[in-house]
Amino acid sequence: DIVDVIKAHFTENRPLEGVRIMVTAGPTREPVDPVRYITNHSSGKMGYAIAKQAQLLGAEVILISGPTHLETPNGVKRIDIVTTSDMLEAVQANMAVDVIIKAAAPSDYKPMQYQNQKIKKGSESIDMKLVKNPDILKSIVPLVKDQIVVGFAAETQNVEGYAMQKLQEKKLDFIVANDVTAEGAGFDKDTNIVTIFEANGTKSSYECLRKDVVAGIILDKVIEYLKKQQTIKE
Amino acid sequence: DIVDVIKAHFTENRPLEGVRIMVTAGPTREPVDPVRYITNHSSGKMGYAIAKQAQLLGAEVILISGPTHLETPNGVKRIDIVTTSDMLEAVQANMAVDVIIKAAAPSDYKPMQYQNQKIKKGSESIDMKLVKNPDILKSIVPLVKDQIVVGFAAETQNVEGYAMQKLQEKKLDFIVANDVTAEGAGFDKDTNIVTIFEANGTKSSYECLRKDVVAGIILDKVIEYLKKQQTIKE
């Protein structure tokens, strides 16, 4: 009857029903003092687009987000964080998922010392020592069991070289790479030009597409991997 | 007749008719490389509230704005800038006004060297040398003829001391000071708790008010000064 037809329709379009996905998105901020901070141009749009579509496809989605001006997609559980250390903690606390998509751009470095009071404009120059932040993807490698792990590489040069290195070092299933300096790609844009490198050696390049469409391509690949794993049935 | 009544009504409520006002707002960003930058928590809300109300009160408003997510108020001419040097240039190019309200929070320091390519995560620490940015308010002191100049001081301690020093050094007519760490005050909030210090020694403290209301108080003071100068008639 009609109920079954509708049910079938929605089931067909909900291939991620029962699948738990963690998506990270946005930049992080590393405070210098109560007023100033170091950050990057990540807008969170790519990660939010993935979270939104994954939820529409039936997944249970946790979105771990740095500061953005974007609305939380319907039905998505959002956890707000500020610094890379915060994000690391939130990621490690939410590893009970089937898929991890690391679309965030956490700051690699942070000021060694946080100043409790606003630094007054005085000396002609300031020497600021930055220290390395923990590497979130590397830190979860020992915690990964059978989760599908997807990374991103935003580069300004040698995109393929850096992406392949990250793919291997961080034991990713696949990595979505883009040159953020290319026209139509990168931060705070609604479009992106990506190449997907897979651990099995496959390389797929795409033209300039809306981030919604790129999100769909990434999730289709995730579905393919989940089927191979038999986490979801054909 | 009715047209005159309406006209009179609007004239009454347009005390800044014919007055040109420059408002600066928001943070600036100082790039480290194509991906990273240093900035601060200024949201631009205070400056945008002033620009909006000044326009409604009849002024011709130029809004020189750092990167924000705010909508340009109706009828306001907005000039977008990124760095403190950009803002300095835009301010100096728009000095042909009657009133200058410097509500922006331009970065005091910038990285000495901009890296053309994304700095790769390598060494455990990085020594970043920051150099002083030009001081916009100080730089315009020699250019000020009879413009009313209003400054802001966002501090985390010794608010009165720093505000009085800035008022004198930068030859302001008055300064709007606040402690950004106070509950209900400061960056990215819709309210503010301010004290206005005037060059003539007057000090006026206000309770926690919406930024729209604070904008009204500031513009009322501007109108008082313009009347004293006879730029606008009683």
Task: Please tell me about this protein's structure.
The structure is a homodimer of 234-residue chains. With 234 residues, chain A is an alpha/beta fold. The first copy, chain A, has one domain: Rossmann fold. Helix content of chain A is 28%, strand content 27%. In chain A, the strands form four sheets. Chain A has an eight-stranded mixed beta sheet, sandwiched between helices. Chain A has a two-stranded antiparallel ribbon with strand order 2-3. The two termini of chain A are 24 Å apart. The mean pLDDT of chain A is 92. At the A-B interface, strand 3 and strand 8 of A face strand 3 and strand 8 of B. Strand 3 of chain A pairs antiparallel with strand 3 of chain B.
The CATH topology of chain A is Rossmann fold
Largest sheet of chain A: 8 strands, mixed
Query: First CA to last CA of chain A: what distance?
Result: 24 Å
Biggest sheet: strand arrangement of chain A: 5-4-1-6-9-10-12-13
> What is the architecture of chain A at the second tier of CATH?
3-Layer(aba) Sandwich
Structural class by SSE content of chain A: alpha/beta
Number of helices of chain A: 6
Number of strands of chain A: 14
The CATH superfamily of chain A appears as CoaB-like
Query: Structurally, how many domains make up the residues of chain A?
Result: 1
Q: So what's the overall shape of chain A?
A: globular
Chain pair sharing the greatest interface: A-B, 40 and 40 residues
> What is the CATH class name of chain A?
Alpha Beta
What is the share of helical residues of chain A?
25-40%
Query: Strand content of the residues of chain A, in percent?
Result: 25-35%
Order of helices and strands of chain A: HEEEHEEHEEEHEHEEEEEH
Poorly predicted runs of chain A are none
Instruction: Round the Cα radius of gyration of chain A to an integer and report it.
Output: 19 Å
Task: Name the average pLDDT of chain A.
Answer: 92
